[in-house]
Amino acid sequence: MKILLVDDDADMLDITSYALRREGFTVIIATDGTQALQRWRSERPDLVLLDVSMPRMGGLEVCRQIRQESSTPIIMLTAAGDEEHILQGFTRGADDYVTKPFSPKQLAVRIRAVLRRSGENQITQSSGQISGAGLILDLESHRVSFRDTAVQLTPIEFRILHLLIANAGRVVGFARMADHVWGYAGGDPSVLKTHISHIRSKLRLPREGPGAIRVVHGAGYYLADR
Questions:
Q1: Model pLDDT for residues 129-142, shown as the tens digit of each residue
Q2: So what's the architecture of 2-123 in CATH?
Q3: Residue 24 — φ and ψ, nearest 5°?
Q4: CA nearest 189: which of 53, 83, 117, 118?
Q5: pLDDT, tens digit, 9 for 90 and up, residues 109-166
Q6: Residues ≥6 apart with Cβ < 8 Å to 123
Q7: Domain covering 126-223 in this structure, CATH number
Q8: For residue 162, which phi and psi values (nearest 5 degrees)?
Q9: 65, 75, 161, 201 - which has most CB atoms within 10 Å?
């Protein structure tokens, strides 16, 4: 698997690229956002590891431009506790994030989880639709419609809603949802809550009745179907 690693910190690039190569990945390096886009277009890596703060073009803008052209998995590298950048990255279509400092093993686990999830999506997203509780998801375009509203969802938002529709009327536990969305258990509940909020807002979902996404405190979420 080919990884594009983007960071303007030379020490971070050396340490991380060495660790990833030891894990069996082929690593391409870029030191700023403009170079990252050039190398992404020429090399077509399987996944991008993208630092948020960089010269010439920031990671969030790089993420946005890649997502306009492709579904290449993207993991954002952020400073510890940088919640605002994490949420902005997800809004622009990032698949996951890792906070610095991180261990090489932790990073490799995240990479493999995102790659596995991406591969499963390519297999299962054949032409067709899935529907429930008044919502219709197009499995190819990642567009979803509800009543008179149709929007494009980010990859994570799509996976969340797909899981909820497939289990409409039943509670989906937090751990199961995190595993489905990120490919591993232990995802941040506050980030999951933010994605749910974005879905509700984009589709103007009701607070009650069919189409409402409800939380069961201490248990999980469910999509009301009646």
A1: 888 888 988 887 77
A2: 3-Layer(aba) Sandwich (3.40)
A3: 100, 5
A4: 83
A5: 889 888 887 765 554 444 578 888 889 888 877 789 998 888 888 888 888 998 898 8
A6: none
A7: 1.10.10.10
A8: -60, -45
A9: 161
Residue 94's closest CA among 27, 124, 49?
A: 49
Residue type, 62: V
What does the alpha-carbon distance between residue 224 and residue 212 come to, in Å, rounded to a whole number? 5
Distance between CA atoms of residues 112 and 176, nearest Å: 18
Task: Identify the three-state secondary structure at position 89.
Answer: helix
Sheet containing 135-138: give its strands across. 129-132, 135-138, 143-146, 149-152
Is there a contact between 175 and 221 (Cβ–Cβ < 8 Å)?
no
Candidates 67, 60, 65, 52; CA nearest to 155 is 67
Say which residues have a Cβ less than 8 Å from residue 203's Cβ, sequence separation at least 6. 135, 144, 146, 149, 151, 211
Q: What is the pTM of this model?
A: 0.67
